[in-house]
Amino acid sequence: GVIDANGDIVISPEYEEMIVIPNNQKPVFIVTYDLNVSDMTYKTKAINENNELLFTDYDRVEILDNHDKSNSIYYEKSILKVLKDGKYGVINYDGKEEIKCEYDEIIPATGLNNILIVKKDGKYGVINGLGTTIISPEYDSVTPLSTKPEDGYIIRNEDGYGIALTSKK
After folding, report:
1. 97-113 pLDDT tens trace
2. Staple partner for 1: which of 13, 14, 120, 158, CB 3.0–4.6 Å?
3. How far apart are CA 80 and CA 91, in angstroms?
4. Structure pTM?
5. In whole angstroms, what is the distance from residue 119 CA to residue 125 CA?
6. SS3 readout for the chain
7. Nearby residues of 98 by Cβ (< 8 Å), 6 or more positions away
């Protein structure tokens, strides 16, 4: 369950798995359930402080957990990853779709806030949390060059490695 700073119960303790609060300014709680340890499958759902289901148009709602340079985990504060019909997209905490569910995979770019590595049709690219394409998904791999998005990305395709710069310095 979840209690607030005063010790008052917000979500009653009825869940076997952990409840994640990705943004303590928004009443959105991500609950993991039906965990199968043998095949590492699980389901998730989003609920509010009244235990009501949120974002029911999606098959799964997940947090986007990232890592800083000291490898500490933090959550993206403005977006959530969603799954619908086998494809991933992104919504904000009000449920507005920021990125259509058209990607095979979406993961945060390590150490970069609101920057996502996407996979579509077997190729990787980079978008921001509002859906703006930074690098089209046409590479075998994309890796941030540093913890500053303006420094660019290491890209790899069948011809080898390169650097994709995203802004002028």
Report:
1. 999 999 999 999 998 99
2. 13
3. 5
4. 0.89
5. 7
6. CEECCCCCEEECCCCCCCEECCCCCCCCEEEEEEEECCCCEEEEEEECCCCCEECCCCCEEECCEEECCCCCEEECCCEEEEEECCEEEEEECCCCEEEEEEECEEEECCCCCCEEEEEECCEEEEEECCCCEEEEEEECEEEECCCCHHHCEEEEECCEEEEECCCCC
7. 79, 89, 90, 91, 92, 129, 130, 131
